[in-house]
Known about the structure:
heterodimer; A: alpha+beta; 3-stranded mixed β-sheet; 4 helices; 3 strands; B: alpha/beta; Rossmann fold; 5-stranded parallel β-sheet; 7 helices; 51% helix
Amino acid sequence: MKIVTSRDIKNNPNILFDNPSETIITSRGRPRAICITLDADELDDIDDFLSSIHQARAKRSVEKIRDLLLRTSASLMLTPAKAQEIVTHLINNQGRLF
Amino acid sequence: MRAQTIPRVVLGADVLLTSLLLPASSAAQLFNIVLDGKVIPVIDSRLSSIYATMLKCDDLNLPRNLSRDMLFKLSRISDIISPSPFPYLSEDLPPEDVLYFQIAFSAGTIPVIKSTLHYYLNSSLAKTIPLFTPAGFLKELQHINEYYEVV
């Protein structure tokens, strides 16, 4: 995977299309976007394609939270029953809002 | 085979919470189906705030950036609506509960998923808007899928 800066793109926009794979675009030393080359016929499925990316990102984000909660709960010896207790406790504490 | 439309639901914050804490629960199973894009959650700005408040609670001890990131990404796979005025008056439920039903009504009378249904059993709103537990909705999904396989 190629990494280019926003300045590189300003100087030579074609730099994004030189590499047939993905390019990470950085700005001020931080990754800000990813550029993926497309074939013309892939444009027909662009909504599905973008949905898949959004789903994958959401999934990854949920996995991170689940992993973290699992690690926390492991250190607290949290069993499913205890986790259910926490859910109930939170629901009761916050009222029926949840 | 007839094309199947993707079901849309309003997820209770309790369902979201259970799905994160208990990965083997029906709530988690349903949430995984949502993440696969086979069910679309419907939210509005107020429900989004309720989710955010819940994830901020001290018992969970979640880093704020993680929960914010997850909610942002969840919103990208959700249908975000501006609820229309709600024609039903419900004196038997507090306003925060009515929110779920209002969103469900505005989205075209779609199901509301809550962990427990006993609060709502006598509510007139629950007779107007379909209400399921995660396990109940998973069964419903199975029926829907079987129907579309036959048709």
